Amino acid sequence: MAIQHATSEEGAIGTATDSRGRLVTSDGTPLRRALERANRRRKLTALALVGPLLAFILIFFAFPIAQMMWRSVDNPQIVNALPETLNALEEWDGQGIPDEPVFAALHADMVADLDRPRREQKIGPLGIRLNYEISAARSAISRTSRAVADFDAPYKEAFTDAHRLWGQPELWRIIKREGRPLTASYYVAALDREYDAEGNIVKRPENRQIYVSLFGRTLALSLAITFMTFVLGFPIAYYLSTLPMRYANLLMIAVLLPFWTSLLVRTSAWIVLLQQQGVINNALVGMGFIGDDGRFSLIYNQTGTIIAMTHILLPFMVLPLYSVMRTIPPSYMRAAKSLGARPWTAFRRVYFPQTLPGIGAGGVLVFIISIGYYITPALVGGQSGRMISNEIARHIQQSLNWGLAAALGSMLLVGVLILYWLFNRLVGTDSLKFG
Amino acid sequence: MSSKLKLIGLSSAVSVIALSAAAQDPVSLTIVSWGGAYTASQQRAYHEPFMEANPHVTIINDDGSANALASLRAQSQAGNVTWDLVDMLPSDAQLACDEGIILQIDHDEMLAAAPDGTPASEDFLPGSLGECFIPQIVYSTVLTFRPGAFPDDAQPSSIEDLFDTENFPGRRALQDRPGTNLEWALYADGVDPDEIYEVLATPEGVDRAFAKLDTIKDDIIFWTEGAQAPQLLADGEVAFATGYNGRMFDAIEVEGMEAAIIWDGQVVEWDGWVVPADGPNEELVMEYLYFATDTQRLADQASYISYGPARASSAALVGEHADLGIDMNEHMPTAPENYFAPIVLDNDFWVDYGDELRERFANWMLQ
C-alpha cells in the first residue's frame, strides 16, 4: 500500500540504479528515501486530522484529570505559612509540646503574615488545612492570629493561653508531619485510616469509617444495576432485532424517548410512583393486595436507587445489545433446530454466545456510568442508597476539602481502570461492540 | 438674542446629556442567590428599586448559591472572577473569608446607619455581622407536622415530640447532615439551648446526641434539597418534616399545604451577602450593598417572604405580605411568640467540628 502510494507520487520505479547499485526513482532519488518521505507526509496528514481532537482531549480531559490527581497529594499550606516554625521543629523529638524557640518562630511566622496583602495571607488557608486533621484547629489559628500582634515573650505561655490546642502535642505532631509539600494524608483519610501518636497508620474509630464501605456499596449497587439492565434489556433487544425494521424503529423510539427526557424529570417521576403514598403503593392498597399499614418502602433506600438508575441506564444496555443481535442471521437458529437442538439448547449454544460482545459492551457502559452517578442516588437513595460519588460531590461543593475529594476520585478512577483491565483480560475488549 | 440664548441652552443641555451618558455606561451586575421564592423576594425588594434609581444598571440573577463556595474558589484560582455579589450562609462565608477570596467589610463605613442614626454595627442583630459577611435575613430551621397524622386532641407541640415515636408515630423527614439534627437530639434529651454547643464539643455529648437519634432512626427519611421537605409532607410520606421556615410558609400559606409549624427549638441562622475579591464592578457593588441593606429595604423583603430582617430597626417596619395581605409579623422567626426557645446556630462551632461530625453522621446514616 505504502509502496504503491509512494510510487504513484514519486514517479514509476524504473530499473535504473545509482552508482552504488541502489534502486532510484525516475528523478534520481534513492527509492528508500522517497518512500520515507512519502510515509512521513502521510503520517503528518493523519496527525493534522486527528490533531484538533487530540488537543481537545489533552486540554479538557487529560489535563484536568492530571490536575485533580495532583491535588490529592499537593500540600502547600503548612510549608507556605510556617517556614520558620518548621525549621525550629526540626529539633523537636515529638514528645510533649515544643519549647520556647518553636513558639517564638511561630510568633514570627504569624506576625509576618499580618503584613502581607490580604489575598496573599497564608494563615487562613493554614487553619482550614489543619482543621481537616484535627477539629477546632481553624478557630485556634484565627483566634490566635487576631491577637498575635500583642503577644510578648515568653510566647509559649501566650499561645497556650490563646487557645487550648497549642498545648496539645497532637497539633504539633500534625504540623511537623504535614509540613512537607507533598502529603499522603488525603489517601490515608480516604481509606478510613489515620495517624496515631507514633506516626503509624491505623484504622479510624469505627464510628468515623465511611469511605471504604461506601466504595464497597457503590460497587455492589453498580453491579446490581448492571445486572438489572441486562435482565430487562436483553429480551427487549432480542424482540427489537426480530421485528421488521419499521416496527423496530417505532419501538426503538419508545426506548429512546425516556433517554431524551430530562434526568431530573425522570427521577421526580419515580418519586411520584414509588413513595409510600405513591401511585404503586396506592394501587396495591386499592386492589387489596396489601393493607394500608403494609405499604412497601420502594424509595429513599437502595431499592429506590436501583429502580431509578436501572430505568435511566437501560438504553445504554439495549442499544449495544440490539446492534449486535441485528447482525446475527436468524438462519443460525433455524439450522441449529433443524440439526435437532431444542429451542433452549439452540439459544444457549448458538445464539447467546454471539451476543456476548453486546453484553460486554453494554455491561461495561452501564457499570462505569453508574459507578460515578450521583444526582439520582442523592434524590432517591435516602440513607442506604447513596454512593461514593455523593461524598465526592459533597467534598467538592460544600466542605471544600478538594484534596480528599481528589483522593477519593483518583481511587475511583484507578478502581475503574483496574476493573476494565480485568475485564479485558477475561473477555477481551476487542470483542466489544458498541453498535 | 432669544434664539442665541436658546441655542446656548440647547447645546448645554445636549452636553449635559452627553456627559451624563458618558459617566453612566450601561453595567450589568451578576448577583448570585438561592433561586425560587427567595430570589424573587430579593428581586422585588432590592434589585428593582435599585435599577429604577440607577437606570444604567442591569442586575442579572444567578441561582448558584448552593455551590457558591466551590465556584468562588474556582473563579478566584482561575483569576477570572465574574460574580459581583453572592448570597451565602455565614459558615461558608467564614471559610471564604479565611481563604481571602471575598472582601472584608468595614461595617460602619460601608453600610447605611439606621434612620435614628444608630451605626450599622449596633443596628444589625448581635453577632450576625461577620468579618466579610453582611446579613440580610434571619431564617430558621423548624419542625413542621401534618395535623391529619395525629388525633385532634393529641397534636405535637415540641421538639421532644419529634423523638417520641410512641405517642406520635409516623415517619420523620430530616436533613441529611448533622447540623440541626444533633442540636435537636440534645435539646430533646434535656440540654438547655444555651449549653448545646458546649455539650456537643465533648465526645460524650456527641455520643449522647447520636444515642438520642438512634431512638428514631428507623422512622427517618433523609432529605437533601430544601424543596424536598415540604414535598414529603404534602405527599403524606411523613408525619414530621424539618425545613426552612420560609419554604414552609410558602407551602402552607401560598400553596395551601396542610401543615403546622412548631416554633419550639427553632434553629436560627443568618443568611447574607459577601463580595468576591477582584470582582468586575467593585465600586458599584458597594453602592448596591449600601442601598440594599438599609433599614427600609430589609423590612421590604419581609413583605415577600417570611424571613426576618437582620436589622433591629427594620423590625418595626415589617408589614403585610405584598400579595396575600396577611400580617407578616407573626410569621417571622424573630416574632416574640415564636422566639421563645430558639437555638442560635453556632457557625464557629460548625466550621471547627463540621468535618468530623459529618463523617460521624454519614457513618451513622450508613449503618
UniProtKB/TrEMBL annotation, chain A:
Where is it localised? Cell membrane
Q: Does the keyword Magnesium apply?
A: no
Region ranges (Disordered): 1-25
Q: Which GO terms describe its biological process?
A: transmembrane transport
Membrane-spanning ranges: 44-63, 218-241, 247-265, 305-325, 359-380, 400-423
Recorded protein name is Putative spermidine/putrescine transport system permease protein
**PROSITE patterns, alphabetized:** ABC_TM1
Residue ranges annotated as coiled coil are none
User: What is the organism of origin for this protein?
Assistant: Roseinatronobacter monicus
Taxonomic placement: Bacteria, Pseudomonadati, Pseudomonadota, Alphaproteobacteria, Rhodobacterales
UniProtKB/TrEMBL annotation, chain B:
InterPro entries reported in the protein's UniProt record: SBP (IPR006059)
Task: Please give the Pfam families that the UniProt record associates with this protein.
Answer: SBP_bac_8
Q: Does the keyword Signal apply?
A: yes
Signal peptide start-end: 1-23
Name the keywords, alphabetized: Signal
The protein's name: Putative spermidine/putrescine transport system substrate-binding protein
The organism is Roseinatronobacter monicus
